[in-house]
Amino acid sequence: xxxxxxxxxxxxxxxxxxxxxxxxxxxxxxxxxxxxxxxxxxxxxxxxxxxxxxxxxxxxxxxxxxxxxxxxxxxxxxxxxxxxxxxxxxxxxxxxxxxxxxxxxxxxxxxxxxxxxxxxxxxxxxxxxxxxxxxxxxxxxxxxxxxxxxxxxxxxxxxxxxxxxxxxxxxxxxxxxxxxxxxxxxxxxxxxxxxxxxxxxxxxxxxxxxxxxxxxxxxxxxxxxxxxxxxxxxxxxxxxxxxxxxxxxxxxxxxxxxxxxxxxxxxxxxxxxxxxxxxxxxxxxxxxxxxxxxxxxxxxxxxxxxxxxxxxxxxxxxxxxxxxxxxxxxxxxxxxxxxxxxxxxxxxxxxxxxxxxxxxxxxxxxxxxxxxxxxxxxxxxxxxxxxxxxxxxxxxxxxxxxxxxxxxxxxxxxxxxxxxxxxxxxxxxxxxxxxxxxxxxxxxxxxxxxxxxxxxxxxxxxxxxxxxxxxxxxxxxxx
Length: 479
Fold this sequence. Notes:
- The chain is an alpha/beta fold.
- 34% of the residues lie in helices and 22% in strands.
- The strands form four sheets. Strands 1, 2, 10, 11, 12, 13 and 19 form a seven-stranded mixed β-sheet that branches.
- The two termini are 22 Å apart.
- The model has no long low-confidence stretch (mean pLDDT 95).
């Protein structure tokens, strides 16, 4: 079969690229190895509960946000509901307990109330976040500052740094290895448009985009893996793919453009050796971002019944003294590791029936924590870690343990198994101050990247941007 575009992977980047191309009249084939579209933008059902795999809150969706333009272009807002979240986050570390608003003026007021001697530092932070000259930083070859360096430059108050870095885990595990420019643009989006949750789970967005491709003449094939990208005369011209069902015969499909919504390391393995080696060499100095551990929780009651009232709560380890301790804490024992607790029951999430609710514990995780274990050892460790976090949550929300009706733990190796990323990374390449950019392979024409591993970085927003810009680029080139 011949198509205008073949897309490898149905993560958000591939779905957005496919939807844009299908709308533009292109014949699209999207091939996904999993049974559902979405990558990390998926959910699964357990009894009465819908468990959100990855989305805690999506930044932006304000007037100037590119996602707003993208979603309008693809009709997303007509079919998918987005819920504005009540606050940005709550940060709790020992006696330090602060709720930070999405509204900058309210956030500043709260911060000044807790840190009255730090007005200059607080102003410097928000001036940095809202510096609109930052935005095209990927077009610069200069090495920028790290978030950690910036924080050290504006204040010596470590508690203030911890508060301002409350949601650092949304981007990276180390403030000294995270680009200040990248962080600033992302934080500005939260402080401008607030946080948003997709009503009914992020699966609704992924399903909508998959259906949009099909409704516009495209094909979406699930449970099939691409094993080879076919290159002829230094042009990507097609793929070989095979079904997951035992005994499935490989098939070939051809297209003018091939789009990889997959980790670049995986793409290198799909290419002929010459080109695969070139791509491997091109990305060899790129750091890979951390993975995440998630404890999915189903409750027999809304946690408001226990007096709890926060959507996103970040619990920082008491033993951390400076921001330099953050990365060390990310690799500490799970009994002391910092974590996030999301209570989806604080909004009308539709993840549980009336009278019940869903929550999730999330922390930075690494496949190295779980490798080398036997099956029984792995399961036993998962159970131990689950109980550890439930015990820690009990201290935050007395009575929670008795409210737990169901729990299930997903580790870094779980992530790696489902989305096939190196080290189970959910953010792609780490967004370091060096701003290393993963571009298309120069020696191969018509091979494009539309994933969290591409130019604009990871996370929901990065994948969406990368997919849309990929689609637009192809449409312009093929006019």
